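The following record pairs a protein chain with its ligand, flavin-adenine dinucleotide.
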Amino acid sequence: VTGAPPAGVSDPADPLAAVRLAAAVARDHAPAVDREAVFPSASVATLRRYRLMAAAVPRRFGGLELDLATMTAAARILGGACGATAMIWSMHQVQVACIARHAGGNDTLVRLLRSGVADQFLVASATSERGVGGDLRTSHAHVERRAGECHLDKHATVVSYGGQADAFLVTARRGAGSPPGDQVAVLVRRADAELEQAGAAWNPMGMRGTCSPGYRIRARFGAGQVLPTPFGDVAAATMVPLSHLLWAGVWTGLATEAFDRARRFVRERTLVGGLSSGEHRLATADQLLIGLEARLADAVQRYRLVYDGGGAPTSGLGVCLNALKVAASTVSVDIAELALEICGMAGYQEDGPYTVARILRDLYSARLMIANDRLLDANALNLLLTRRD
Ligand SMILES: Cc1cc2nc3c(=O)[nH]c(=O)nc-3n(C[C@H](O)[C@H](O)[C@H](O)COP(=O)(O)OP(=O)(O)OC[C@H]3O[C@@H](n4cnc5c(N)ncnc54)[C@H](O)[C@@H]3O)c2cc1C
């Protein structure tokens, strides 16, 4: 933490003012973060400075308790500036929301959350696992209880900002004899864990600043660090819907930035008297963007009933949020591709005011972050088994 927030910017009445300040820093650093595939330290320091790392945490634990619409708007603003910063912020919000909403009366978790929020800690997610891929609801690793302590040993295949995280939310089977779907989530502090980077070095196509290689995580922790809510319930009520909402916010932000660059390009062209097919494509991109915004707003309203209202997550909500994720992950790419076609070579360049290269590379990760095929399969099964609500 780099100090108290400057006056005014942490005003709960306008938290998005602080998000915009953080986004300005993120925008300045985005090209270098992408080029070097390094963690966006300056952007995250600014988010910490404005206490935005605790956006999703209730006030009773020291957080900002931002509502869903504001958090989605924040993800979108950050996404327009730097996809990696926005994705790191969003993934972290999901982890702290899971801890805050599912800690129950667990004193250890509440204490760790409070002190973590005071320090604006960064929490990474380790759900992916060797041999499991993106199947969130399956684990091989298990929690082992011996001599009054718990242990786990997990080969996580993708852990964003694992090297920078202060803590990890790790999924594992409840015990050695538990089936793959009987999972718990464990809050593992950095000090509890031995981390060994595994697999290929991190040199991906996009979202390079998320720094997401694989890690073998060997942890020793107290039984109080295991979330008391079964992971299946945590996933249905918080992890899956909030992830899909905030990720969709990030991708919509990236697509909006591509759209804005294309619009400026067409304006410039029109001013110098040239005619192009850009105007038509711009209108098509706008139509897609309006659809994405409407979907996001609708999903916020539907999920609010569970997130704020304490309602039980229905299979209909799951279908809706999965559909949002699949749509946002592909429509955002369609918008950025239209922007590329509008801007031509100026868009294809890695630098310059009309480049959409980084935006497109970042957006191609969207369909892999829990493979769309998996989500469509899950939705198809749900739609066959239940009525649409
Ligand atoms: C930028 C980024 C950041 C990430 N950060 C994290 C993180 O912090 N923590 C974390 O745990 N994970 C993270 N992930 C991992 C991610 O969410 C997925 O878990 C991971 O990408 C799955 O790996 P996979 O695509 O190789 O495997 P799979 O999910 O197994 O997919 C491989 C292929 O198999 C197909 N496939 C697999 N199963 C099915 C099925 N049932 N039906 C149909 N087709 C199927 C898929 O369509 C795909 O083509 C991140 C991913 C990205 C891109």
